[in-house]
């Protein structure tokens, strides 16, 4: 009953084609699955990850066409970070951001590591974090066929930041229910605001942290394109996931029960500040229905949607992901 780290982060895009171009051709991540939102099959669900889609490397996007602007604020997953191998990789990325005019900051230190903030074209709040001094959850392996040199590539998901107006309920869920441990803090980026608290689970390190930002000066976030929908944490197997379900029920927290996503099993619940958490099993994985060499090239549907394929594909804008 110990969460192993971050499993995936799911966000919103308004244009799947542009999203695919940025995350594969610019960031160099591999599209390991082109599927649909199983709860609304009219929209794409794109999964970007390392070479084979290992748990903990997976950044996903729901395409909500005509999604509006995100008005940043409280009650949100306000930052997604991506791991790179070392400080030298951060220098490479800063130059790449400058060359292609991607909005970014300067390389700076955060919680004893070097980091680099940037945004995607839709305003998704992102950060690269160097693993040069990192110990903890192992990173993934960047795809060898990526346009980015493999030694500079993105190796997985780093810490997620939650921004809340009242930290106590979220801390209670993280520590008392989910088993996270408080490991320290660092100064807020906004003068006069409380320090950002850091919690870790499992083996710890950049692949297993949640950073909790307490903001007293913000309205509630209005999500849209470029916002995060939920964050998922790794569970070893379905038996353990069932035990987590029972624990969350015992705490009287409303939850989804076990949900079969085919590539993994899931459990969803929302804490009092409105943050949507998911627990997801490590397997069976993205190679379940596609050859590893051809992941993400066609629309993949779980067996329970296969008989609706013709109708589903008719609603989707064509998206060439074979290149």
TrEMBL record:
Organism classification, top ranks? Bacteria, Bacillati, Bacillota, Bacilli, Bacillales
The protein's matches in SUPFAM superfamilies, at most eight in alphabetical order, are given as: Glyoxalase/Bleomycin resistance protein/Dihydroxybiphenyl dioxygenase (SSF54593)
Q: Where is the VOC domain?
A: 5-131, 156-282
Q: What is this protein called?
A: Ring-cleaving dioxygenase
Q: Which UniProt keywords apply?
A: Dioxygenase, Oxidoreductase
Supply one GO molecular-function term: dioxygenase activity
Signal sequence segment: none
């Amino acid at each position: 009953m110990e969460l192993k780290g971050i499993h995936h982060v799911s966000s919103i895009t308004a244009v799947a084609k542009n999203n695919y171009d940025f995350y594969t051709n610019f960031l160099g991540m591999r599209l390991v699955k082109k599927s649909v939102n199983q709860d609304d099959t009219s929209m794409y669900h794109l999964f970007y990850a390392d070479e084979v889609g290992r748990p903990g490397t997976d950044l996903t996007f729901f395409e909500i066409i005509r999604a509006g602007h995100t008005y940043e604020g409280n009650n949100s997953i306000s930052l997604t970070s991506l791991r790179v191998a070392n400080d030298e990789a951060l220098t490479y990325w800063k130059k790449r951001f400058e060359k292609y005019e991607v909005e970014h900051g300067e390389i700076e230190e955060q919680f004893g590591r070097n980091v680099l903030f940037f945004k995607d074209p839709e305003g998704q709040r992102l950060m690269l974090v160097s693993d040069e001094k990192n110990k903890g959850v192992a990173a993934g392996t960047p795809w060898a066929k990526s346009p980015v040199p493999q030694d500079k590539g993105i190796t997985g998901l780093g810490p997620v930041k939650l921004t809340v107006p009242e930290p106590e309920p979220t801390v209670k869920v993280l520590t008392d229910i989910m088993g996270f441990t408080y490991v320290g803090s660092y100064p807020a980026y906004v003068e006069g605001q409380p320090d950002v608290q850091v919690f870790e689970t499992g083996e710890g390190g950049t692949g297993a942290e949640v950073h909790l930002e307490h903001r007293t000066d913000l309205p509630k976030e209005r999500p849209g394109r470029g916002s995060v929908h939920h964050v998922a944490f790794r569970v070893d197997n379905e038996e353990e996931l069932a035990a987590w379900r029972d624990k969350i029920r015992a705490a009287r927290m409303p939850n989804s029960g076990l949900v079969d996503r085919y590539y993994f099993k899931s459990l969803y619940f929302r804490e009092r500040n409105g943050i949507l958490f998911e627990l997801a099993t490590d397997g069976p994985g993205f190679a379940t229905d596609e050859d590893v060499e051809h992941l993400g090239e066609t629309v993949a549907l779980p067996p329970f949607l296969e008989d609706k394929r013709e109708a589903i594909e008719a609603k989707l804008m064509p998206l060439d992901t074979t290149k």
